[in-house]
Specification:
Layout: H1 2-20, H2 25-35, H3 41-53, H4 58-72, H5 92-119, H6 126-136, H7 139-156, H8 161-185, H9 191-223, H10 226-239, H11 254-277, H12 281-304, E1 321-324, E2 327-330, H13 331-340, E3 344-349, E4 354-357, H14 382-397, E5 402-409, E6 412-423, E7 426-436, H15 461-465
Antiparallel strand pairs: 1-2, 3-4, 3-7, 5-6, 6-7
């Protein structure tokens, strides 16, 4: 059995290697059809993982991943499941497919139709096309939910290669949408270059729809628990949805939960298969168990938390109080402070694992609970992973203490800073501080506390002539 499984994987790797070495698609497709009646998505994943481990640049797999999908198209085995909760409205898979349906309609029924009119010389449709491409930009939220939530759980179960490849393609699509929109807005735009840009973009989007629904979804349905899907569904509202109204909240049915108990051996077998495709799976699951313990501790502390009843704060020993060198705070107070801070905080521990983020009302970048326990480099697009790792390595080595960047995010100017945290024992981790500084950049002159509007009060003539103080009154 194992020998046959290994033989199949080796042969799939050989076929994919043929493509990467310059072989033709037709030859690869013919070899596959000759030797295989069907293939599981996990076999494709294992083959791509083996190519990366053999030294192939992941960006090369990204470049040819559409061809990989085309080789196997129509031959991916169906997986029979014990329940079909994923077909219920609100389930993340149902939401993903519904968005893809609307997206496909936007591509073919709206934008393709507008391109036909432009081809006939009707450039009065330019504004409608720009509006349609703006709508297409909502795809960013669809991809962000996948990258932030689904990829996080895929990594937890050891499925690491597909997220890396798909995220790279997602970023390419984002860039292609921006490029096409800028070209259409140019008064000198010509139809032929516009058409070529559109066809390339449309192909990438449609191939990603295929990869999501025919590769990623079957793989995740086989491995994720109903609890995983429930958390993904809940966290999805923090990121938002594309093309559709907010779906109804989803929770697994009682019947599905009962059926899941019967299916658990099969799920564990699928997890084991994922474990065999990547050496990092054991560490990932261990991190997940540590996360559960930490979450339980925090929950207990929150229930026990209470305001301080005395001011002798240095002697506080209540589990609901946190004693600092400069004072004491209850957990509710700490949470309140984090919520109103004008910056977003994310803490990454000494092992480069995300352990905490602040939960303000208007975060610059979305964060959900699924990020806790995730390697921080995997929270960034593949093209910037090496830069993040270089900063963290510098912090750990003690060769640098901070790093800062500022970027344009739509109309916002965003300031991002990383700080190394250390104590007498050494490196503790990294604190990421993100802030929207758009309004700060507009500040001019000065605005003092006493300049703020105040209700009128009776004052003596002497008091009225005193120099105003900028210090906060003692009382």
């Amino acid at each position: 059995m194992k020998e046959e499984k290994q033989r199949r994987q080796d042969r799939i790797v050989e076929i994919l290697s043929l493509l990467h070495e310059g072989g033709s698609f037709e030859e690869a497709k013919a070899l596959f059809n000759e030797e295989f009646d069907g293939v599981d998505v996990t076999e494709i994943t294992a083959a791509e993982k083996a190519l990366i481990q053999s030294g192939l640049d992941p960006t090369e797999i990204q470049r040819l991943c559409n061809i990989h999908a085309a080789v196997f198209k129509g031959s991916i085995n169906e997986i029979h499941r014990s329940n079909y909760d994923h077909e219920q409205p609100g389930h993340p898979v149902h939401t993903l497919k519904l968005e893809n349906q609307v997206l496909q309609s936007l591509l073919t029924d709206e934008i393709d139709d507008l391109l036909k009119k432009l081809e006939k010389g009707d450039w009065s449709q330019r504004e409608r096309l720009l509006a349609a491409l703006t709508d297409l930009g909502q795809l960013d939220r669809h991809y962000a939910r996948k990258e932030t939530l689904i990829f996080s759980y895929m990594e937890k179960y050891g499925i690491t290669a597909p997220p890396k490849v798909m995220w790279g393609v997602d970023d390419d699509v984002r860039d292609m949408i921006k490029d096409l929109r800028a070209y259409v807005a140019n008064p000198k735009a010509a139809f032929n270059p516009l058409s070529e840009k559109w066809e390339a973009l449309k192909q990438e989007i449609e191939e990603m729809i295929f990869k999501e629904e025919e590769i990623m979804v079957p793989m995740t349905l086989d491995v994720f628990s109903l609890g995983d899907w429930a958390q993904i569904a809940a966290d999805s509202f923090d990121i938002g949805f594309a093309y559709i109204p907010e779906p109804l909240p989803w929770k697994p049915s009682v019947q599905a939960l009962e059926q899941e108990k019967e299916r658990e051996p099969a799920r564990q077998a699928a997890i084991q298969q994922a474990r065999e495709t990547t050496a990092e799976i054991a560490a990932g699951l261990a991190a997940g168990e540590s996360l559960a313990d930490a979450t339980g501790d925090q929950s207990a502390q929150k229930k026990a938390g209470a305001p301080a009843s005395e001011y002798d704060w240095e002697k506080q020993d209540s589990p609901g109080q946190v004693v600092f060198p400069t004072g004491v705070l209850g957990l509710p107070e700490l949470l309140g402070i984090f919520e109103v801070l004008p910056v977003d905080l994310t803490f990454v521990d000494a092992e480069d694992i995300v352990r905490f983020y602040s939960e303000g009302h208007k975060r610059v970048f979305p964060r959900t609970k699924s990020v806790i326990g995730r390697a921080v480099v995997n929270c960034h697009p593949p093209k910037s992973m090496h830069m993040v790792q270089a900063i963290l390595d510098g912090f750990r080595a003690g060769t640098r203490d901070q790093a800062e960047f500022w970027i344009d995010l739509g109309p916002k100017k965003v300031y991002i800073r990383y700080f190394a945290l250390r104590d007498d024992s050494g490196y503790l981790g990294c604190l990421e501080v993100t802030q929207d500084i758009t309004e700060i950049q507009k500040l001019e002159g000065q605005s003092r506390l006493l300049d703020q509007e105040q209700p009128p009060v009776a004052t003596s003539k002497a008091a009225a002539t005193k120099e105003p103080s900028e210090k906060m009154p003692a009382e």
